[in-house]
Design a protein that fits this description.
Largest interface: A-B, 87 and 87 residues
Structural class of chain A: alpha+beta
Strand order of the largest sheet of chain A: 21-20-19-16-15-14-22
Number of strands of chain A: 36
Oligomer: homodimer
Number of helices of chain A: 13
Radius of gyration of chain A: 26 Å
């Protein structure tokens, strides 16, 4: 009875006592603490990734990056309150897939799965509760709830570092509506949470640890890195075959085609069954495409139509509410996943369907199940919202893994722990500049993002959008509603073809960059803030007082939101319609023009006036860029291709060229090659050499047919 | 021991059982139910209003407006889940002070005290969890938490009224991204909540019950309904006296002046103490103004500066976090309120200060105390956020009531239960059209709103803004940052003066309208949707599919967001800069032009092309509009003024002219007059008569000096 009494007392009082947390190093340089009583469902539990231990062990040693005594954890009223210290010049990155801001210090975000709504407030397609500090560490809160993060906005009365007291009436002083704050404070509306701290020493190392902890980045199949076209929604199988032929006629790259809602016998909600009229012979359709070297990716949203044969089976395993009249399957239940698996294997995957575009698992609140919905597993609607996209990624990824086939597709909703899933995020927001900012931000939080192209108001916009999508994780034209083709603006057809072909030629580089994501955890497309030698600090421009537009003298912060790195060596600086010149910030170390090899600058900002035909690209001194001849489709298993290796600048350098069969998971069992390309100074002259591929391992390049191009004269 | 065991079992299981709620009629036509265990702090408890029983008793009888069996209440995981039925054509109004939409059906709002951020999503200055139905009832959720309302968006699998199943692939059918929903669902993140249902039979009756339940609307002092100018922030007492003299020179109305932050010895955070340099003689300053018939209203925000003598006293009674370096006093503590009272009485109110503008008690999240803050009373930061403005209103109102002086001021944050507080809401958003929509929406939720004027880009915008602010609860020019004057655009000075004088002339009407708010609960400025004879239904215009801007074929809804009623009889149709003509919807019953008396229309939409000098105003058939001669300041106690009573149209009619001393609360003890003005047909001719004021009651008009103007020939 004593135990019961103690329980009762504890139920009444324990909840409000500050919790004692213990930090345990769970992987090299990764520490975990438990606050309160974590829930059964969490982000990482939903993703279920296993740490990539080998990669983690290769990272430099890291010490616990914060003063433990400055971290405060409190559990009260069924919520977890966290406080982490911040130093004065520290910048913070991450906290969801943001579209307009990079540095999150001074912002409040409530991380809530949703369509992005035009404001960086936490409502986004990947509301990952993870931040990376410029001081070289990361913090993850693992709870599938709407977590609010005050990233250096809140000031305690008892702070050790109070902000300067300024009288706003004294116009000789610069008053700020945001006084200095020395902490990140976090409210987790859950009984408990698991907290992870990722050590550095650099911000990139913290990101690498985060990605590797989640299994390392996904290595797409080679065809996934080729070009993809999504066709109009009601296209029939005949229309689609014709579309593939059109691509061939135009000599435009095409590796996979996206089949939009019309393939379902009913869509919105979906049957996940072929429409007999538009697709009388699904197997024949897939085979015809494959005969052209083209794969099919199927669009879906997860809501089960009453017209689907799945409906009666799934109904008892679904939530209380419908979405667009469809059932919301409770994917936390193994029986529900099994029903989907059988249906999808039988109807699509066994026919050769290469993957999915998983739409509408993100928002809006007014479309999706409400937070009052209930689910048979007892999972809260809020938790379900935060993890639904991740559960779909995990489930479909498993089906393909069981087939030993890699897949690569699209998803609207992701979250923490999803780095090793084969999906790229997209949305309808369609601001070209903000799409690039999202691409930059994706690198902090272990997700991939595509700035997809749909329509354009002008040929200029068209070619500029095409150029940036070709320097992203998925080179996609999404013509589901507009029916646009890459050659829709004839005046720029050749410029568009050029950049698509450039991407194809760069595949050896890009594939190696993704291998880096997988084995080392380095994001393939990444922020300058994760780049060595980059020391750009966000600038504050003083706000001008104005009664109607800026009554609080708010400062505006200028950040670097429009350039990024593709791998370690290529700096990409997209141009937007209307821009004639743009500024490019080049980090420390010499940088060279990709096209000409000319010296561009070093630790400086340059103004460039690129022609319409070219997206500005810069290469690091001593970098080697392996390329293949232009081709319409990614190399297939067994292909052996000649290589052109470009060297930039004057320094010697090397590059680890990765290769494998490009389609299976055999690389996870060691069936891959890493061949060293190297340029050394030999009697004052630069000279290139290619290492040997290990016998019996797949290597799709002819080491004897390598052209060395020294770009910088 | 059995009891303990039962408790334990209950702690484990009871939480998820559907709660049984009992509806009790707490006032005529008002029912209350308790779900779960309500918290100590709630919106209505914070406001502490007492029902205006006499007014409630005069309303028509009402039956419980919903089928009790269709209301579902569930308490689980420390949250309350509510579901209320909706009929097919029902429209919903309220749910916070919205700026862009009127009908809330089909929207999701998380009601969260904040600056309005440009989107109707629940974040606003008055996030009142109250909705009114076009079917004639209202629902209030009394909990000081961030409540999420799904207003006819969510669809249950087991609904009795399922939406039509439409295949989006079938282009012959009109698919909607928002299928029909038959319920309002609400998530209250609290252990319990009190729920109120307000009967009709009309929507206006439901609003009246809501306002009367909260004590009835506040009756401002007469001077509060005159013109007010807020002066530049660093104006000294000399500057301000000069400003008052300028108003006299320009023969422009002026009843009170708003003194902005510069009066504090330090502001942002505030000392609440006069600056010795700019205000060397506060008492002399107030007296000088009063000698000119002008009162002073003092700006403040609630954050206590370390430089204030209040600081050390208030510190132990304040929250864990600062705002702009200032303490956030825990106003739920009586000791804290007492300290403020002493300080404010001594420093301002005893000198004759007429009231306050209470700024910055609403948002943003990044400026105010975070939700992780703690307060000495144990009140949660979230609760504090929802009620802070209301507590400030209540506290200051009480100080003036104790002096038997009415006050009238400004506040940025309000909530449920605040109808009987002397404050008008304002913000910095400054969209003229959206300001009018806010004015309309204020009428559903028991708050007042002013579309204040600051600056303008053109003379046209200036006069249009001035015209609408003169038909609002507070006719204010806020020149705190710009230093604008009513005559800043000389080309429209006389038009601006005309409309300000028109407001002064209409004071007998406007004051009676506010008396109606107080005694009958009818909002003084109100939506057409609360008006008899108005049968406008929101129109849906079919969305055109467009891949980048409208990929979900969303409909856009057109609503009546730009016209409203001032009292029962005057329809106001503001014009915005750039508009040459506008549509005006006239309800059933004949309507007449205010200026000419000409017939305008009946149950129709008319196009009007108003001159720059006039804001379109229409008067109901048979209406009587009492007016006084143009004057610069509102009548004072003891004034006896001649009356002009205008009659419009051809029908007989009457008007209850209300009057009292205009400054004290004696009217609450019966010291007021209600005199009937009447127009009857007498041998085919219309003839006016004035009833007698009761002897010994204040009545500021000369019943023997009444001019009758029959406007319609």
């Amino acid at each position: 009875m004593k135990a019961i009494r103690l329980t009762i007392v504890c139920l009444l009082f324990c909840a409000s006592l500050p919790a004692q947390v213990q930090w345990t190093e769970v992987q090299p340089g990764i520490w975990k603490a438990v606050a309160g009583t974590p829930e059964k469902i969490s982000l990482l539990k939903a993703a279920g990734a296993k740490p990539a231990v080998a990669g983690l062990q290769q990272l430099p040693a890291a010490k616990f990056p914060l003063s433990k005594g400055d971290i405060s954890v409190r559990v009260a009223d069924g919520k977890v309150y966290l406080r982490f210290p911040l130093e004065r010049e520290e910048q913070l990155f991450g906290l969801g897939l943001n579209f307009q801001t990079i540095n999150q210090r001074g912002r409040v975000s409530t991380l809530h799965m949703d369509h992005y709504g035009g404001k960086d407030d936490g409502r986004t397609h990947a509301p990952v509760p993870f931040y990376v500090s410029s001081r070289g560490y990361g913090v993850l809160i693992d709870a599938a709830r709407y977590i609010t993060v005050y990233a250096g906005t809140a000031v305690r009365v008892d702070t050790k570092n109070p902000p300067e007291l300024i009288d706003r009436n004294d116009k000789s002083k610069k008053w700020s509506s945001m006084p200095y704050s020395d902490a990140v404070e976090i409210l987790v509306p859950a009984s408990g949470a698991e907290i992870y701290i990722f050590g550095g020493p650099t911000a990139m190392n913290a990101v690498q640890r985060y990605n590797l902890f989640n299994g390392g980045g996904y290595l797409p199949p080679k065809w996934g890195l080729g070009f993809t076209q999504r066709v109009p929604t009601l296209y029939s199988q005949t229309d689609i075959i014709r579309e593939a032929d059109e691509f061939e006629k135009h000599q435009f790259p095409l590796d996979f085609i996206g089949v939009e809602p019309g393939w379902h016998s009913m869509a919105y909600p979906c049957t996940f069954e072929w429409d007999g009229q538009r697709f009388p012979n699904p197997k024949g359709f897939i085979d015809s495409l494959m005969a052209r070297g083209v794969r099919a990716n199927l669009w879906l949203n997860p809501y089960v139509s009453p017209k689907s044969s799945l409906y009666p089976k799934v109904k008892p395993l679904s939530g209380s509410h419908t979405v667009w009249n469809g059932l919301v399957t409770d994917f936390t239940l193994p029986q529900a996943r099994q029903l989907f698996k059988e249906h999808f294997l039988k109807n699509h995957i066994s026919l050769g369907v290469s993957g999915y575009k998983m739409d509408e698992n993100d928002g809006y609140d007014k479309w999706l199940w409400p937070d009052v919905a209930t689910f048979p597993s007892g999972t809260a609607a809020e938790q379900m919202r935060q993890i639904y996209g991740v559960m779909m990624q995990k489930m479909t990824d498993e089906w393909y893994r069981e087939q030993n086939r890699r897949t690569y597709g699209l998803v609207r909703a992701s979250n923490a722990g999803a780095s090793n899933f084969p999906y790229v995020i997209y949305n309808d927001y369609y601001s070209h500049p903000d799409f690039i900012t999202a691409l930059i931000n994706s690198s902090f939080i272990g997700v991939l993002w595509t700035p997809e192209v749909r329509a354009s108001k002008s040929a200029e916009e068209w070619v500029r959008r095409m150029q940036s999508v070709c320097f992203s994780p998925m080179a996609m034209l999404n013509a589901w509603a507009d029916g646009t083709k890459p050659w829709s603006f004839p005046e720029v057809e050749s410029a568009v073809q050029d950049v698509a072909m450039l991407r194809m030629r760069l595949l050896p580089y890009i594939y190696s960059v993704f291998a880096q994501y997988h084995f080392e955890g380095k994001p393939p497309f990444r922020s300058m803030n994760l780049t060595d030698g980059f020391a750009y600090t966000a600038q504050e421009s003083g706000g001008k007082l104005d009664a109607t537009h800026n009554p609080y003298e708010a400062k505006t912060r200028s950040e670097l939101k429009d350039q990024y790195m593709m791998g370690d060596d290529i700096l990409v600086a997209p141009v937007f319609a209307g821009q004639k010149t743009r500024k490019v910030y080049l980090p420390a170390g010499k940088w060279y023009d990709f096209y000409t090899g000319a010296f561009a600058g070093e630790n400086t900002a340059i103004d460039v006036t690129p022609s319409l035909e070219r997206i500005p690209l810069y290469v690091r001194d001593g970098a080697l860029i392996p390329m293949i001849p232009a081709r319409r489709q990614a190399p297939k298993p067994g292909d052996v291709l000649p290589l052109e290796v470009r060297h930039y600048g004057t320094a010697p350098g090397s590059f680890t060229l990765y290769d494998d069969d490009g389609v299976s998971f055999d690389f996870e069992k060691g069936a891959y090659s890493q061949v060293k390309l190297e340029v050394k100074k030999d009697g004052g002259k630069l000279k290139g050499s290619v290492g040997k591929a290990q016998a019996g391992k797949p290597f799709g390049y002819d080491g004897k047919n390598v052209t060395w191009t020294f770009m910088t004269k």
